């Protein structure tokens, strides 16, 4: 196993190929969007860079481990190269980078659970994927409250305002609240990005951004990507309004199913999404040594 802070273009392609093969075999993507976007980033001058772990056999990359600057981690082994100890080697390598590493098991599949248990890792966080059948559960008619207006995101104008609201809305979230302008631009450069699908609700009097719903369409499916309400505007029903606006937008694009991700211990959000017709469809679990307590929402 090799450890580095940079990957060659050929290695990046190989990691994508391994991840795609694993997703096809397991029915769940092993690497998150952020991990895939970070593959070809160069080390930062401030030292905040990921650590890349690779397993190569006969000149072919067959396993990959990613340890992010915040200590979160993901690993994947090509289906044809499993049962040879590569997954354990990658997990031990991640623990060698940081003893407090937190490793995602996307889908929480049985082999991942067994591997985590064998190294005394325990669940510290659950992330639910919830899904909605668009035909069976049409979105409610959104009514924007008086004093507010809805419009689409305008690139070159709205980036900083969106980042500011996102940061305040997710101040205690372990990933979402840390999004930077570079992170935002990475996503805006993706083929799926559509400014019309990033819906903003703003205060008509001040022009301030109050809430937003970033939707995503990829692989013919829709996603509630990010819903954010500025804490200064909470309690005015804007979360429900902007959520409905996004659901209506996705339905208008012809998607049959809409997915979202929500923390498993966020009871109010779970209740809200259930009322809209969403049901749990998958589970991601984060494992760590007992040095960690459950992360805040």
UniProtKB/TrEMBL annotation:
Keywords, ordered alphabetically:
Acyltransferase, Repeat, Transferase
Which transformation does this protein catalyse, written as a reaction? 1D-myo-inositol 2-(L-cysteinylamino)-2-deoxy-alpha-D-glucopyranoside + acetyl-CoA = mycothiol + CoA + H(+)
Q: Which GO terms describe its molecular function?
A: mycothiol synthase activity
- Assembly and oligomerization: Monomer.
User: What is the protein name for this chain?
Assistant: Mycothiol acetyltransferase
Among CDD domains, the record links this protein to: NAT_SF
EC top class, in one word? Answer: transferase
Q: Which InterPro entries match?
A: Acyl_CoA_acyltransferase, GNAT_dom, MshD_Acetyltransferase, Mycothiol_AcTrfase
| Known role | Catalyzes the transfer of acetyl from acetyl-CoA to desacetylmycothiol (Cys-GlcN-Ins) to form mycothiol.
Q: Which NCBIfam families match?
A: mycothiol_MshD
The positions annotated for binding acetyl-CoA 2 are 227-229
Q: Which family does the record claim for this protein?
A: Belongs to the acetyltransferase family. MshD subfamily.
Question: Which Pfam family, any one of them, does this sequence belong to?
Answer: Acetyltransf_1
Positions binding 1D-myo-inositol 2-(L-cysteinylamino)-2-deoxy-alpha-D-glucopyranoside in this chain are 33, 175, 216, 223, 261
What residues bind acetyl-CoA 1, as annotated?
Answer: 75-77
Q: Which SUPFAM superfamilies match?
A: Acyl-CoA N-acyltransferases (Nat)
Quick check: keyword Acyltransferase in the entry? yes
Span of domain N-acetyltransferase: 5-135, 148-297
Return the EC number: 2.3.1.189
Encoding gene, per UniProt annotation? mshD
